[in-house]
Amino acid sequence: MRRIADEGFVWVCAMLAIGFLAAAPAAALEPTGPIEIFAKVVAIEGGVDRAFASVEVEILQGAALEGLTFRLLDRRREPIEGVVFEGVGRGRSVRIPISGKGVHEMILEAVSGTARDEFAIRVPLGVPGFAPEDDGEIASFPLEVRP
Questions:
Q1: Alpha carbon of residue 6 to chain centroid
Q2: CATH topology of domain 35-128
């Protein structure tokens, strides 16, 4: 009788483990919809008064790349003027004019037919950035301590 109970316990544990593995969340860069984009600030050129941020755009998934269009919006969802989109296909870059000290927040929008995706971009200009210190095992974010 005890052997049957032990086998049953092992069977239940095995089923639970399989269920948890099957329900694991997707990786951060794994596409989840018909179109998905990822953007990363790679360089900031210029001074605090007037600068340009270079942003790499990666298209993780797109059903119809030939009809893909991009827009850059501010926090109020108004289009930002003077933005230059470069590149074709899956590799693109964006050159964004920015000015003034602070963290500039904007939204990159990609549209292809009825499919649409957005990605938030934060560009620090004249202030400390938000990049983590990563040694490959532990990532930590610096904090500013005020008295």
A1: 47
A2: Immunoglobulin-like (2.60.40)
CB 90 within 8 A of CB 64: no
Instruction: List the Cα angle 34/40/43 in 5-degree steps.
Output: 150
Q: State residue 25's pLDDT score.
A: 47
Confidence bin at 66 (pLDDT 50/70/90): low
Q: Is 8 left (phi over 0), alpha (psi -120 to 50) or beta?
A: alpha
For residues 59-91, one letter each, b for 16 or more C-beta atoms within 10 angstroms of the residue's C-beta and e for the rest, the string is bebbeeeeebebebeeeeeeeeeebebeeeeee
Rounded Cα distance, 119 and 66, in Å: 20
The residue-averaged pLDDT of 117-138 equals 81
Any residues with CB less than 8 A from the CB of 142 and at least 6 apart, and which? 128, 133
The rounded distance, in Å, linking the Cα atoms of 142 and 121 is 19
The residue extents of the domains of the chain are 35-128
Note if the pTM is more than 0.85.
no
Q: Specify the pairing of strand 84-86 against strand 35-46.
A: unpaired
- Per-residue pLDDT band for 67 (boundaries 50, 70, 90) equals confident
